[in-house]
Amino acid sequence: MGKVKKSVLKFIQRIKAIKSVFKYNDGRCNLLLNLQGYSSNRVYMYPDFKKNKKYYYKDFHRYYSYIVNDKNQYIFTQLMSFFVFSNLTNYGKVLGVISKGEFIPYQNTNTNYDELFNLDKFVVKHILGGKGKYVYIINKIGNKYNVNSEIMDSIGLVKLLSKLNNYIVQEFVEQHDYIKSIYDKSTNTIRVVTMREPNSNNIFIGWAAQRIGTNNSAPFDNWSAGGISSEINIETGILSCAKYYNSTFKRTETYEKHPETNAQIKGVKVPHWKQIINSLTYSHKCLPQINFIAWDVVVTKESFTIIEVNNTSGVEHIQVHRPLLLDESIKKFFKFHGIVKKSL
Question: Which residue has better confidence, 223 or 241?
């Protein structure tokens, strides 16, 4: 990418990042915090925020960090997630895409909507979606369909899908009992962030978190939808206490057990953990143009499945546990790419 084009891209992304800081103020406005790059609710959400403020990765940084992987590399990442990763890792089976309302099956089969609707369960999501938005989990119940808890017939489902564009259709992945026993009304994913060391081919894991659904977020597990988050010890695969931001009372709550099912969270070990982190770091290493990948993983009975690959990541779900920039490797990475100040 040329220098001028790259500078323009950075400028545009900077403007978008500034707008996003104000957009996610959670109904409250703290102009001073906003001007410093933080959304207003961070003072209530993050532990010891005032004391450790400079070590918290800013909301501005999060939305500006798209420049770590250039725009063309972002598209490349998405394409790799659908086609190449299936050969490198356990990527979730892609059944096809929906383009301008038409279902186009993967691998040139003759599957149409009627045949797709015979599946017990499948997922439809936008190719560039995030935070659980633009996702439909479709579950067949007799001659009806449960679509994100809304019941409709096949005519209604065709009507819904025919309005979509640039969506992929994926096989639904059944999760492991370790997490299903904690909360079974959502697919509970793990977010693993891998990063490339500056001027190196070495890949390290920035952070990993188990996302767990609640009755507020179901059928999704996303933090932004009301889910809870438990940090995963990278060395052992063991879960910490879970955290939840209560926007009504402006506080972060801590749970050793799930607040609704009372199932134990703290101390639970993620199955196949070494296999997961070894596979993800190797897959990232095979993509030398990409510096940052946020993986969404579902642990299964036998192994694991990657259901999504992202060009950037929200940080609330991890920074409710600790400030990211206290980690020297993470701080060095974002300094090198010009996201945070070198003087930090």
Answer: 241
